[in-house]
Write a structure and sequence with these properties.
With 736 residues, this protein is α+β, with helices and mostly antiparallel strands. It has four domains: 180 residues, Galactose-binding domain-like (Jelly Rolls); 112 residues, Immunoglobulins (Immunoglobulin-like, Sandwich); 301 residues, TIM Barrel; 72 residues, Immunoglobulin-like. It is 14% helix and 35% strand.
């Protein structure tokens, strides 16, 4: 139903093109697939084609690349009203219903990339594809002046075949028009984050045999791995491969490949490289067609993918052979696992209760915008891993393949979602675009064992969104048609008692008690107070008839702004110029008191792991940044709540003095707050022991009425674990 050809005019779904030609295979080429990264030697120029110079003004760039690294970070300056609040966030609260880029000025428009491709004569008789992992947000691809097609959507991959348009033994010009102009038919239509432009993920040239595992099935690997059944004795795994025989365009001057018999060999390897399952089939692939090949393999005494505890990964290789020679190969991960949610035990991984300590993450980094390298992703994971999180919500769109590869390897559970944020349009073009995004997301990420949740919306309640239950049902049913495994189809709502809350298989809820007061409807009298949070969760679980999850919670916090003593809520909080780190920490502490071991929840995802660019924001002391991250946008500063969660989620003994960046003090008696997962915490001030405490249930110690002397004060804590291990921390405060 939804897999019909919609846009990619030449290459995407040309299933069976028969041109009525007799043919003989003149070139006997048997060569393995090559994947050649197109990283360097790109030229870039911003602006529409009408103003682009063919000679001058081209900047040499390397990929990944975004053109909003600087203007996207600075556009929020001086966006305060007379009351000191952000012009956008003060009017609209949490849900955004305007295009802040249009109002506040980071560039959303057209730009061009080009580079030359040297295509050797030796590649004649082979097929050549170009695969873009993402381009934001509309891409039109040209080779030697001929347009191959268009892709819409900023967060999923797309692939075109170049073969029939290439000049072998000569240079060929690959030119890409990329456009991140705000459009009503391409989500996200609004949101509290920048929609940066560029070729910001990898681009790869694929060279294959005439008969290959298709890269054109929505830019997926062309191989889909589905565990059919699992027991201690045996796992039955289905491997479905899409085989392609010389699909070509009507513009080709070459005859077709004849019907060809190929051997499909599938091999499963364990982590030691030992073969644990193997299957071979002979099949005939008609000329100009795709054919599906399905194999069922048995893995004896299977080892399960157990999340952070033991993320065991098998490796699946699907090979094509002709005349006994390998002509193509695709490798994919296999993790054997099941998911479930029960009223009694919450979230189950492989039938056992599993804690969902989740974080939300935008693909954003100061100085790079969306153009993240693999090492940037690895660093993010190391920070998240050290805190003890077990799950990541990739908000509000599918993130890179590399991020999923790391999640598979490290055992993190992943929530991917369609970028249906804040607003929905129900015209046919908009709906088709969203459906394509949904299909691409599922097919491209299908084999990753880390993916546990498919999201279909985030906070769609606003003035511009019409009733959309029927369309959301189409998305839910479309995903379930594509993926019949135990993954969940979820939505993230910021309102209770709404019809669309009953559409996903599981609805989760965004809520910011202690931060967005007054921006919620009066559901059961709720006004956003911290004291109301527990009852609100009870009511949301009753509404959907099962356990739910908190998909966002938190507050803003600026590490350069502080308050002494017990924390006080700033006025205004959200959107205001004063967002002390201490209030951020207090909100997270009190939220976690409610969330921890809550029998109405199966998990939670704090918002957010890292500060991120948002041009609508001008709050705290940092323009154009959403300050809700518990780590700074440059990843250099871990805010206080990071260590509260580490004390709760990571069993490694630790102790940490909060409010340490509030160095200059004016109160001679102060509060010292400490996070620790140890048995006892001992406090010293200037070498003198002043107190000892056991951490409370959320691992917090509060030492009240601690005296400081004039000048420099050294604050030291010692903590002993259950095994007697000593850990320490110290900082200095200066009393004026």
């Amino acid at each position: 139903m939804m897999e019909k050809k919609i846009r990619m005019d030449v290459s995407r779904k040309m299933r069976c093109l028969w041109w009525g030609m007799s043919w003989f295979y003149a070139v006997s080429v048997f060569a393995q697939r090559e994947a050649l990264p197109l990283v360097d030697d790109w030229r870039f120029q911003r602006g529409p084609a009408s103003v682009i110079s063919l000679v001058d003004g081209w900047e040499k760039v390397s990929l990944p690349h975004s053109w909003n690294v600087e203007d996207g970070q600075q556009s929020g300056k001086n966006r305060l009203d007379a009351n000191g609040q952000s012009l956008v966030s003060s009017k609209q609260g949490h849900t955004v219903v305007v295009d802040p880029a249009k109002e506040f000025g980071y560039y959303r428009g057209e730009a061009w990339y080009y580079r030359n491709l040297d295509i050797p004569e030796s590649w004649k008789g082979r097929r050549i594809f170009v695969r873009f992992e993402a381009a934001s947000q509309v891409a039109r691809v040209h080779i030697n002046g001929k347009m191959l097609g268009e892709h819409r959507g900023a967060f999923t991959a797309f692939c075109f075949e170049l073969t029939d348009y290439l000049k072998f033994g000569r240079k060929n010009e690959l030119r890409v028009e990329v456009d991140n102009t705000h459009r009503q038919d391409i989500p996200p239509l609004s949101g509290d984050f920048n929609v940066n432009g560029g070729l910001y993920r990898p681009v790869t040239l694929l060279v294959t045999d005439k008969i290959c595992i298709s890269p054109l099935d929505y830019a997926s690997p062309g191989v889909y791995i589905t565990p059919q059944s699992m027991s201690k004795e045996k796992a039955v795994v289905e491997i479905r491969s899409i085989l392609s025989n010389g699909m070509r365009t009507a513009m080709s001057n070459e005859p077709l490949v004849p019907d060809a018999a190929v051997e499909v060999e599938t091999v499963v390897y364990d982590t030691d490289g030992k073969i644990v399952a193997q299957g071979k089939d002979m099949t005939e692939v008609p000329a100009g067609c795709e054919r599906e090949n399905v194999q069922l393999l048995d893995i004896l005494q299977p080892k399960l993918w157990q999340g952070r505890q033991s993320p065991y990964l098998y490796k699946v290789k699907v090979r094509l052979k002709r005349n006994g020679k390998n002509v193509d190969e695709v490798e994919q991960p296999l993790g054997l696992r099941t998911f479930a949610i029960t009223k009694k035990d919450g979230f189950l991984l492989n039938g056992m209760p599993y804690p969902i300590y989740g974080v939300g993450r935008h693909q954003d980094l100061k100085g790079k915008a969306w153009a993240l390298a693999d090492e940037d992703n690895e660093k993010d994971y190391s920070i998240i891993k050290d805190m003890g999180a077990t799950a990541i919500r990739f908000a509000h769109y599918p993130q890179s393949e590399n991020m999923h590869d790391i999640a598979d390897r490290e055992g993190f559970l992943v929530w991917d979602e369609i970028p249906l944020v804040n607003e929905i349009r129900l015209d046919n073009e908009s709906k088709q675009n969203v459906k394509i995004m949904m299909i691409e997301m599922v097919k491209q990420l299908y084999n990753h064992p880390s993916v546990a949740w498919w999201g279909i919306y985030n906070e769609i309640e606003n003035l511009y969104t019409p009733p959309s239950e029927s369309f959301l049902k189409e998305l839910r049913d479309g995903i379930r048609e594509l993926d019949k495994t135990s993954r969940f189809i979820v939505g993230a709502s910021d309102h209770g008692n709404r019809p669309h809350n009953l559409i996903p298989e599981i609805t989760c809820f965004n809520n910011y008690p202690g931060w967005y007061h007054g921006n919620f409807p009066k559901e059961e009298g709720y006004t956003g107070e911290l004291s109301q949070f527990a009852d609100w969760i009870v009511n949301r679980a009753k509404e959907i008839g099962m356990r739910t999850a908190i998909s966002e919670y938190g507050a803003g916090g600026d590490t350069s702004q502080h308050i002494e003593g017990f924390p006080r809520k700033p006025n205004p909080a959200h959107g205001g110029p004063f967002q002390p780190e201490e209030w951020l920490a207090y909100v997270h502490e009190e939220d976690w008191r409610v969330i921890k071991e809550n029998k109405n929840l199966w998990g939670s995802f704090l918002w957010a792991m890292f500060d991120f660019a948002s041009c609508m924001r001008n709050e705290g002391s940092v323009p154009s940044v959403n300050t809700k991250g518990i780590v700074s946008q440059d990843r250099e500063v871990k805010k206080d709540p990071y260590f509260m969660y580490k004390a709760n989620w990571n069993p490694e003994p630790m102790v940490y003095i909060a409010s340490r960046r509030s160095v200059e003090r004016r109160q001679s008696e102060t509060v010292v707050k400490v996070y620790s997962n140890c048995k006892e915490v001992v406090l010293y001030v200037n070498g003198k022991r002043v107190g000892i405490q056991k951490p409370d249930p959320i691992k917090v110690c509060v030492f009240d009425c601690v005296a400081l002397k004039k000048g420099i004060n050294k604050i030291t804590v010692e903590a002993y674990s259950e095994t007697g291990r000593l850990v320490t921390d110290s900082c200095e405060w200066v009393l004026k």
